Amino acid sequence: MDEFKDVLDNLALVDVKHVRGWFTWVNNRSGGNTIKERLDRFVTTVSMIEKYPFMTSKVVRQTQSDHDAIIWDMWGSKPKEYPRDQKLCFRFEECWATNSKAKSIISSKWNWEATKYVNKLEKIRGVLGLWQRDRYGKMKNDMRKLENKIDWAIDSERRDGSAIILREMRSRLSQLYAREEKYWAQRSRSQWLRDGDRNTRYFHARATVWISAMWLKITFGGSFGQTVRTLKTIIWSTFRNVLLQR
Known about the structure:
- Among the domains are: about 70 residues, no CATH class; about 30 residues, no CATH class.
- It contains seven helices and nine strands; from the N terminus they run αβββββαββααααββα.
- About 5% of the residues are buried.
- About 5% of the residues have low confidence.
C-alpha cells in the first residue's frame, strides 16, 4: 500500500474519496473471519479537479456479488440551478393502464361530477400525478434505507458482522432494483428492453430522453420550421427580405 501511495505522489494524482460507501469488497464470512477491503478507487489530476470541482464518487452496492462497483459523477455535488415544477412534467404512463389502483383513481375522478372534459382531465392529472410520485418515491426511499444499512454493515469498524444478514439485505435490495427496472422499462419503449440487461440508468435515459428531443415550431410568413437549421434559414431569410424592402 505504501508503494501505491508513492506512485500517486510521484504522478501527482489525487484519490477521489467516496461520498457514500468505503469498502468495495467483503468476503461474506461471519464472526471474526470477516475481511473488508477498499479494492477500487478513482484517481485524477489536480487540473482535472480544478476543471470539475463538483466531481464525486460513490460505491454502488451489488445484490449478488461480494465485489461492489464504484461510479464517478463529474457533476455530482453541483447545486441545481432551477427548481423542477412537477406540474410541467405530467405525462400519462403506459403502465397505469394495467394498474388497478390507477384505473380506480381515473374512474372515480372522471365520474365524480358532470363537468367539462378539461376540468376532469385537470383533476385526474393532479391526483394521478401525486399518487405516482408518492408510489415511486416510497420505492426509492426504501432503496436508500436498505443501501444505508448495507453501507453501515460493510463500512463499520466491526469485524464480527453476520454474513447471513448481509446476504438477506442484498437479496431485498435485488428485489427493489428489479421493481425499479420494471418501472423504467414500462416507461421506456418496449423494443429497447433486452433480456439480461440490468442497467436501470439506461431505461431511465430512454424514458426521459424526450427532454432533449423537444423542438421549437415557428412560422414566419407561411414558412414552417422545426429543426435548428431550418429555423436559422427561415429567420435569416425573413429579416433579410424585410431589410431589403426598406
